Amino acid sequence: MGPLGGEEREMRVSGKGNPDILGESSGAPFVGLLCDGRWRGSHGIGRFATEALSRLPGARILEGGAGVFLSPLDPFWIDFRIAGERPRAYFTPGFNPPFFAKVPLVLTLHDLIHLKDPREGGRLKGLYYEHVIKPALKRAVRVLTVSEFSKGEILSWAKIPEERIAVVGNGVSPAFSPEGPVYLPGFPYFLYVGNRKPHKNLPLLFRALSRSRLPEEFRLLLVGGPDPQTDREIRRWRVENRVVYAGSVEEKDLPSVYRGASALLFPSRLEGFGLPVLEAMACGCPVLSSRIPAVEEVAGETVVYFSPEDPDSWAGAFEMIARGGSPEIDARKKEASKRARLFSWERVGERLRRILQSAMEESSR
Questions:
Q1: In contact, 275 and 43? CB cutoff 8 Å
Q2: Which of 143, 146, 149, 147 is nearest to 162 (CA)?
Q3: Residue 314 contacts by C-beta under 8 Å, 6 or more apart in sequence?
Q4: Coil, strand or helix: which one is 311?
Q5: DSSP class of 4
């Protein structure tokens, strides 16, 4: 068990309310809207879903269907529920549309990583994207995504009119700020927040650690618990004495973990947005990131970039920060905190509400 307890990151997100209905008042503006609530959780789409659905008073929230969620049967289950509920419009905060329903559809596609990285796709996912998601994109009244980069990728792949895609972005709550409690585990640490899928490129950090000349006390803190693949990579690069699993971190505690870190490390090869980068920026935590389009769009030049294939550069940055950092990093950290304030969940909610109200109007035309 890591210093924060638990076996894996499991953030308790707020705003769920009643699991079936959010705001039953007849005056609530989204009565008649049906939404898929099964995406809510601690992952990136889950954060978006939780925040989005909490801002739609009157909407009916679908639960259940866990056994078929994201399976080949899921579109049929959604069709069945739509037929029973007879909504004015249907919204999913993820990439799981119905098959046949004629109700106005608003679908969210955060990125195309499943198609871009063959290690995370495969034949079945390719078929799902081609024969379920692409037709849904073509018939949806609006398609939502989280960055201009993802929008361009979707347009190139799906060949749908540009005006049908809206970038709603992601946000960060006011709890993520430079002020507040600081996590002090008894050692200085670099921080990694995220899953361990192949596109996240986590082994690069272990390679960089193995080549760095860091002071003995420095550690890499991984949010979440151990898993076999990560343990193998840690042993492969002989950094067992450098890596600590944080265990489960509740969302209310996450800002303090960012504040206590010497830097957030974000070595991804592909991203649709990069929410941990934004959270770290908001908390005044320096960020070392791969130079990839989505992160550049979010962070601009307020973070320090490296190639995701160059462990030596990362190792050099670790050593520089351990020696006390640099005026450049300090200056970027201040600008990053200001830039992060441009991203809020309330702004995401405002964009989403306008789009969904328009979709609901489609049903009465």
A1: no
A2: 143
A3: 204, 205, 208, 265, 267, 288, 306
A4: helix
A5: T
Rounded Cα distance, 144 and 93, in Å: 8
d(C-alpha 201, C-alpha 195), whole Å: 10
Q: Identify the CA nearest to 41 among candidates 55, 31, 52.
A: 52
| Residue 143, both tokens | 């398609």
State the alpha helices, DSSP H only, in 132-224. 134-139, 148-158, 203-211
Which amino acid, residue 180?
G
Instruction: Look at strands 60-62 and 165-167 and give their pairing.
Output: unpaired
Tokens linked to 12: 């308790």
3-state helix vs strand vs coil in the chain, percent to 5? 40, 15, 45
Q: How far does the chain reach from its first CA to its final CA, in angstroms?
A: 57
Q: Name the residue with tokens 């039953």.
A: 24
Element holding 255 (H helix, E strand): helix 254-260
Residue with tokens 């953030």: 11
Helix boundaries (H) for 1-122: 44-53, 74-85, 113-116
For residue 365, give Cα distances in angstroms to 130, 342, 361: 30, 36, 7
Q: Please state the pTM of the whole predicted model.
A: 0.89
The SS3 assignment for 287 reads strand
Q: What is the mean pLDDT of each run of 10 residues along the chain (365 residues)?
A: 34 35 56 96 90 96 92 94 96 96 95 91 88 96 98 97 96 95 97 96 98 95 96 97 94 96 97 97 96 97 96 96 84 90 96 95 69
What residues are paired with 191 via a beta bridge?
A: 221, 264
Instruction: Write the single-letter amino acid at 41.
Output: G
Listing DSSP states for 201-249 in one string gives: -THHHHHHHHH----TT-EEEEEB---HHHHHHHHHTT-TTTEEEEE--
Rounded Cα distance between 244 and 208, Å, is 16
From the centroid of its chain, how far is CA 42?
9
Q: How far apart are CA 255 and CA 94, in angstroms?
A: 26
**Whole-number Å distance between alpha carbons of 238 and 206:** 8
